[in-house]
Task: structure prediction
Amino acid sequence: MMPSPTGAPVQTPETEPPQRILFVEDDRKLSAFLCRYFAEQGYLVEAAHDGAAMRRALSDRGFDLVVLDVGLPGREDGYALARELKKERDIGILFLSARQEALDRIVGLEIGADDFLVKPFEPRELLARIRAILRRLPAAASPARDGAARQIGFDGWLLDLDARVLRDAQGRVQSLTTQEFNLLSVLAQRPGRVLSRDQLLDLTVSRNWAPYDRSVDVMIGKIRRKIGDVGPEPRRIRTIRGAGYMFSPEP
Result:
């Protein structure tokens, strides 16, 4: 990508269009720094300081990722805005927060965020995490190279990897968050293989997690309920004690 005289990236026929990031952060000094830093890395960036500004930006332009501050002032915090985003569009979400409690991180991931970073942070770490999210999103949405649809059927369910939807036997779509879909896809593409929590987290979010982070257990429980895999011994997503989880659909 060639720089313009102003330093902004210029799209050439051989390059992909730059990805767009929206920073929703009420700290104007921080948001200005982040916009400047990520523009220098070749991204198209914009800042919004509350929910209303975020909606205006999203209605006018398309974004690949929204970086949301959890502690926004007023009645609409980052969690509320993320819930709204997940209902309306399939978009990457990364939370920034000064809160260090594990519960806050788990709540954010349950909502459907792709990552959660605690303030203060190194800009390079935020850059690495954003790059990891953006690498996953296009790959998940891209069609199969040979033009064939990629679908996995199990126990009356149909997991469409290209359309990113899960349908029941009647063709109705079962609502899944981005993280839930990613996790189910990883398991469904590896039937009969035991995957540890660390492997599942690496395959779905590509980042380093706290050693006692149980977020994957929370997401597995939510997926099980949504596909009717409940009871004392779930049979579709089996718990292998001391090892992890295994996708084991009925033949």
In short: Residues 123-141 form the longest helix (19 residues). The chain is about 40% helix and 20% strand. The two ends are 49 Å apart (CA to CA).
